[in-house]
Design a protein that fits this description.
Elements (H helix, E strand, L loop, with lengths): L34 H13 L4 H15 L1
Length: 67
């Protein structure tokens, strides 16, 4: 009777690697090139709790300077 048996590792028990997800596409009407830009913008606005008017002016100035 063996106390420390070696367990046989089967291929079925290995963790499977998930398939990569496709890159999310943005609607062209949004005006941002990538989903990452949209995500950053969304998190930026979530963080703004005071001085919303100055933040809105900053964003408007930033978007109009790119065009």
């Amino acid at each position: 009777m063996a106390v420390f048996k070696k367990l046989k590792k089967s291929k079925d028990k290995r963790a499977t690697v998930p398939e990569p997800e496709p890159v999310k596409q943005l609607d062209k009407r949004v005006g941002l090139d990538t989903y990452r830009d949209f995500f950053t913008l969304k998190n930026y606005w979530k963080a703004v709790d005071r001085r919303k008017r100055e933040a809105a002016n900053h964003f408007l100035h930033r978007c109009t300077s790119f065009s």
